[in-house]
Amino acid sequence: MTTTARAHTNIALIKYWGKRDAKLILPYTSSVSLTLDDFYTDTTVSFNPELGSDQFTLNGTAQAAPKVTAFLDLVRAQSGRREFAQVASVNHVPTAAGLASSASAFAALALAASRDAGLRLAPAALSRLARRGSGSAARSIYGGLAIWHRGEDDLTSFAEPLPKTTLPLRMIVVMVDAGQKPVSSRQLMANTVATSPYYPAFVKSNEQAAAAMVAALAAADFTRIGELTEQSSARMHAAILAGSPAFTYFQPDTMAVWHTVQALRQQGVPAYATMDAGPNVKILTLAPAVPTIQKALSAFGGRLLVAAP
Ligand code: PMV
């Protein structure tokens, strides 16, 4: 049998940063995200008794992939299957965008591998499985808005969809640097948790922010949604910066875009900035404001991408 599945990438409005259990990937805080329709991964999985090992291709090129094998081991354990699998993934995330593709990658792998192994998992169980590949993948099981409940253990830490919003939300991705990130999120998260004196404050404020975000989304209060989004990102990056050794993903252009967003807002344009494990800036806005923001950032030319949920 061969099974193909598609999953879309997501951007956290309320961030996930830090694991309280690295093996199970249990987070210290809940997180809320927006899944983007334009960027996705298609993955085909085929468990095959004739294979002597797992095989993985990304965009047509064979790759050594210990993380894929470790993930397939989980699917084999859950399903009782013993065969190795052929896995072919194609990323439709513009490679230059520098957007995290691990979320869509592991969500697509969870969907395709579990189905191909004969498992028929409900969404929460799929989300728990995807979580084991990459935390943010737990949220990419769904389109639109999702909340990943931190939970207490493996069974209770999963994402769920949030009600559809009437707001015409848009994300403008500003590609500051398309290169490989200098430090993986996995490594840096562990460092922030272990060494940043600001980390406990981030956890406390972020958990409250997740609940506040659910309320703001339900009320379609864009100003509040934007403020919470910008704050969660700023507090995550402050905690990262305060770790030992001190570190930031930001580059000069990250801050230049950030200042432009602040200036736009002073002029009444609904725009809020959020950054992840890299220097690129994502601007949360509403559809009617997109042309104004594009114009203000025209210096970035072709390095602006507009995405919708
Ligand atoms: O899923 P990971 O391990 O790549 O971590 C993602 C971390 C952030 O993108 C910075 C925040 C988030 O919630 O997606």
UniProtKB/TrEMBL annotation:
Pfam families, per the entry: MDD_C, MVD-like_N
Keywords: ATP-binding, Lipid biosynthesis, Lipid metabolism, Lyase, Nucleotide-binding
Span of domain Mvd1 C-terminal: 172-299
Xref: Gene3D superfamilies: 3.30.230.10, GHMP kinase, C-terminal domain (3.30.70.890)
Keyword ATP-binding: yes
GO MF annotations, alphabetized: diphosphomevalonate decarboxylase activity
Highest taxon of source: Bacteria
Enzyme class: lyase
Domain (Diphosphomevalonate decarboxylase-like N-terminal) ranges: 7-159
Annotated EC: 4.1.1.33
Entry's family note: Belongs to the diphosphomevalonate decarboxylase family.
Name under which the protein is recorded: diphosphomevalonate decarboxylase
Originating organism: Lacticaseibacillus jixianensis
Gene: mvaD
